[in-house]
Design brief:
about 100 residues, two-stranded parallel sheet, about 60% helix
């Protein structure tokens, strides 16, 4: 299992090697992601609030392009509940799941 913004980079190679059970890019409400990220970053107090808001807005605007890129690399866009359900199904069928 790989996760993160760069996980889609390995989809094609994993598929070629027969190692890919699924590849998903989480599709979340952008506003909720913005607020969750902002709350986390403000609580960590690593940068000034003004900087965090500006960065958050930039990431909010870039998110559709990031999702399109991940899909272009072979990931399927899906909501978190759907991904969790699919992964649970895969694990249920695995002898070590």
């Amino acid at each position: 299992m790989a996760e993160g913004i760069f996980a889609a980079e390995i989809v094609e190679e994993c598929r070629r090697l027969g190692l890919l059970a699924g590849a998903y890019a989480l599709r979340r409400p952008r506003g909720a992601t913005f607020l969750r990220r902002l709350a986390r970053d403000l609580s960590e107090q690593r940068k000034a609030p003004r900087v965090l808001i500006r960065r958050g807005v930039a990431l909010l605007r870039a998110e559709p392009a990031v999702l399109r890129r991940q899909m272009g690399l072979g990931a399927e866009a899906a909501r978190a509940r759907e991904v969790l359900s699919r992964v649970a199904s895969l694990l249920a069928g695995h002898p070590h799941g």
